[in-house]
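User: quick one
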Amino acid sequence: MTSAAVGDLVSQPYKYGFVTEIETEKIAKGLSEDVVRLISAKKEEPAFLLDFRLRAYRQWLQMQEPDWAALGYPPIDYQDIIYYAAPKQQAKKTSLDEVDPKLLETFDKLGIPLSEQKRLSNVAVDAVFDSVSIATTFKEQLAEHGVIFCSISEAVKEHSELIERYLGTVVPSNDNYFAALNSAVFSDGSFVFIPKGVTCPMELSTYFRINSGDTGQFERTLIVAEEAASVSYLEGCTAPMFDTNQLHAAVVELVALDDASIKYSTVQNWYAGDENGVGGIYNFVTKRGQCRGARSKISWTQVETGSAITWKYPSCVLQGADSVGEFYSVALTNNRQQADTGTKMIHVGPRTRSTIVSKGISAGHSLNSYRGLVQIGPKAVGAKNYSQCDSMLIGDQAGANTYPYIRSQQSDAVVEHEASTCRLSADQLFYLQSRGIGFEEAVSMMVSGFCRDVFNQLPMEFAAEADKLLALKLEGSVG
Amino acid sequence: MIRPDAPVLLEVRDLRASVEDQPILHGVNLTIRAGEIHAVMGRNGSGKSTLSKVLAGHPAYTVTGGTVTYQGQNLLELDPEQRARIGLFLGFQYPVEIPGVSNLEFLRVATNARRQQGGASELDTFAFEDLVRERLAVVQMDPAFLERSVNEGFSGGEKKRNEILQMALLEPVVAILDETDSGLDIDALRIVAGGVNQLASPDNATLLITHYQRLLDLITPDHVHVMAAGRILRSGGPELAHELERTGYDWVDQELALAEVG
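Assistant: Done. Structure below.
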């Protein structure tokens, strides 16, 4: 990347902060059993799903919001949130031509063109706008391979037996406070099913867009890879700039059967609030994958740059013998952002292996914590884990914490943990500058060098994007 | 090589500078012409390292007075990276380590920044490999160092060789070498000095900042300046360095005391 290109980049503010003016159908603020029933009715759901929601709602009422994370924020008023908002359009859209052009334009502006002429040729996209999925590309082509890729609402109708079989089996509705809330009110998200022996022929991607100011987003994603199936999936997300905080509480469940492999990548760029910490998304997300089958593999790669608050621990339950879990993470916080993020690797089966590579970058007055659990169960003979947690501090007002938890009930397990903290110093910058390398490019070089192990894991189309995104987010933070 | 008619490359006039409101330079004057090798000597704290950092544009130093003209251009209004691109080079006393940034990639980006300023084309990865392998010979450096992160885990001598390798690639007009001899054993010192001698030409100039004579045994300066209390106290030929070696810096203190009384 030339220094001029980085210069252009860093001079831009958050460029996804616009609001689409569109007529929206919203329900009244607040949460009650009636609201749960209303959401389910609007989505014309079968009885099992309404029961699932109501059970979750009742569990949620009994639960306490967790307070163990290194995060500080004012209490969330759950009655001051709208739990369902959808752009008004024809009830049933059979083709993209029937999607409101304003919505297509919105996704164009976000760099996710959906129309047939402009869309990415090798990535199928499910576009979610507030509470509903508005379009999914390449559905028919994928169907030829037996791959199901659609919104979860559609899957509930078209493939209800699969939803009933898998939904809530990885993240039970009472797993935690936010998962219970999501299970009660979840709106939309993606469903992916890769049948036995199929390698998904293209990248799958879901793009989440929050548009309404006082709406919570509660998406639900479920990915199932049958025996010897494999898929690479990427999610992206942005939101407008509001001076209030929006709640985002998602649940993602992954299921990998024998010899299956799922690679799940996230580039999270929700609005992070302004430099004084006003506004931004509260991101409380439960992501978990279950390696049910022998030799299955689940790999999480995340680049977390947005959100005012991030509470997120993509995890792997390694049940099948010889199954593999991976977690590669870059979490960048700037200004007043706070992130408490990491992973859990639960080794259940024999000879299970996991790798954790976490890179935290804190700038401004932000606080960035890594929290990770490696658990080796009594049957996990020969289990192995390698963890590496590195923190980079930019400036002298930012904070970084590392909380590694290791629990082993197996004496022959191998658990390695390495951690380091460094500071991006004025002297390093000056060194690069004194060799003719411009300021922004120097910062970008150092930050991408620090994150290289993780960026190497991203699908190629997105690695360069992630690199640019970091440079953009660090604008004005070094001086 | 002294040629009175050679063009002036760097002209420092009454330069004053401070760090954290503490004045360090109190009016430095220095004229460097093409083809010349200068040595600035002085004790720790005399201001000689500050002079090198101010010339390279380190942001921690504030220029409070005076002028610096580089090839007819006001150097002080340029960013550090602009100064580097037009051919000013600072070899650091303590080169920093930059984990994760590949040394080879760093050298390539730096070389291209300098080349593009001069209107030359950007070197791609392959063309640059050829160039860098050729220049490695100047400092007898093992190509394995190209694959590592910038200066990370390098010994003191390896870091200094990496500095001279950068100089060989950037082909500066004025190279300032800040205590390049410090921390080097005699073999490394010979290699580094040999590199500097190879790179000296009638069109460029070198400013050596050093505490000791031993570097000047290997690189013969045309002009020697003795710095104390933020000023150049005396200038002369190579014999001045020998005199310092013989008599130490005590006479400097006396001269300084007299100057203050006067």
